[in-house]
Specification:
four-stranded antiparallel beta sheet; 296 residues; Rossmann fold; alpha/beta; 12 strands
Length: 296
Amino acid sequence: MTQQINDSTYLVLTAAPQSGYFSAARLTELAAQFPALPEPKLLSQDAVEYALEQADAQLAAQLTAHPFDVNFVDGAHRCKKMLIADLESTIIEQECLDELAVVIDQQAVMVDITRRAMRGELDFEPALKERVAMLKGLPESALQDLYDNGVTLMPGAQTLLATLRDQDVFCGLVSGGFAFFAERIASRLGFHRFQCNDLKITDGVLDGTVVEPILGRAAKAEILTAWAQELGFGPKDVLATGDGSNDLAMLKIAGMGVAFRAKPAVAEAAQYTIQHGDLTGLLYLQGYSESQFKTA
């Protein structure tokens, strides 16, 4: 993996995938509107970067009125050596408990608890226990049915993992969700390892409890730190991404902590945010261009 180390700051703009937003005409419009911008480097038709001497808060505020993500990235140690990713609503599009709640006709209640927990309005652990208790008596086959028919990868997930694996980046999945789903997604996408919560299942039936200890907000940051130390990496070498309040601690200690399509409070607290782009936006932040992307 080529490590880019320099003193520049990069302004990275990422638009909706396959939008072709950054056409030649659009770049000309941006140059006219923001004459202080240097020549752009086109990463794809959906992403562009500008090398600057330093971040410019006023410029960022003006750019946020446009339909693309605005991030300033330090050029030093820009390409990361480790990825730590959340699973639900990050690597996959679903919240699995919310989807399972459909089976027991409790979706409205479950979704409300999930949203409040992810916004930080409820403590993660008691909220998790409350939701899992609602699933008592559900057959394990319902988990397999959800995985087979209801779980979909977040756009860009396969490209993100394939590209980073090609660059010898260590990829870890850390989730407050459950091993049944995390194990399958980790194997499918090529994560090197995963750590998550687990449901207690007896004779093929969920008993409504979670295996202790519960992996929550503090645990995610602890796992990131432990894995980095084990592999000889420092925080600056780590890219972390997630969407919920229980991801904030790991986002804050990572060298590049990206709030991905996150809850408002999480996006506001994170240094980097992707709302318009898909998971390939994490590659653009590191300076990868579309020509470097791998898909398998």
